[in-house]
Design brief:
This protein is α+β, with helices and mostly antiparallel strands and 184 residues long. It contains four helices and seven strands; from the N terminus they run ααααβββββββ.
């Protein structure tokens, strides 16, 4: 019979199984397995390195499975971010692409802190959401204020344009979503 494990690892696994059977009180099974695995005369010893090895390995497997699931979730989110363009890669030195003072525009119309900023996917338009319960629409080239979208009764927490930019969806602490037609 061909073994998946190298001989040394196979012997360690067998001893760990024998130790587990001993600690669980499976005397008959222990005797049969010891004989069939060629480990006749196995004596369990709490100081042996195989003592509780199976339980420790099993705990490690469970912990690693949980970590794998967490990493798969993170990977999936990052793949979605890359696919939707939420993550942009930069080439060159940071000094070449980091913004430098002075600011091109200062947009000041909100009466409370801004919670979200989104660029329109096709036009030079910018939307800002705020704790003042409003969304402001701006010309991102000139910085000119265009209009205010009102309707939420609590902080506007986030927003997103659809791929064509004809719809803006906002969500608020008032537990509502609002869909705005911004095509005009």
């Amino acid at each position: 019979m061909e073994h998946v494990l190298p001989e040394r690892q196979l012997k360690e696994l067998q001893k760990a199984i024998l130790d587990f059977m001993h600690t669980q009180g499976y005397a008959e099974s222990l005797e049969v397995f010891a004989r069939e695995s060629g480990n006749d005369g196995f004596v369990a010893d709490s100081k042996d390195r195989h003592h509780n090895l199976l339980a420790k390995k099993w705990t490690s497997v469970i912990r690693l499975q949980k970590k794998i699931m967490e990493l798969e979730t993170k990977l999936s989110k990052l793949q979605d971010d890359v696919r939707t363009g939420a993550v942009a890669t930069r080439r060159g030195k940071p000094a070449e692409w980091l913004p430098r003072p002075p600011a091109q525009q200062t947009l000041a119309q909100h009466r409370a802190p801004i919670t979200s900023v989104r660029f329109h996917p096709q036009y030079m338009v910018l939307a800002t959401a705020s704790e003042d319960m409003t969304v402001k629409i701006w010309d991102s080239e000139s910085g000119d204020f265009e209009r205010t979208l009102k309707g939420h009764t609590k902080t506007v927490q986030d927003m997103a344009f659809d791929a064509k930019g004809s719809v803006l969806v906002t969500c608020s602490a008032d537990l509502t979503l609002r869909v705005w037609d911004v095509s005009d």
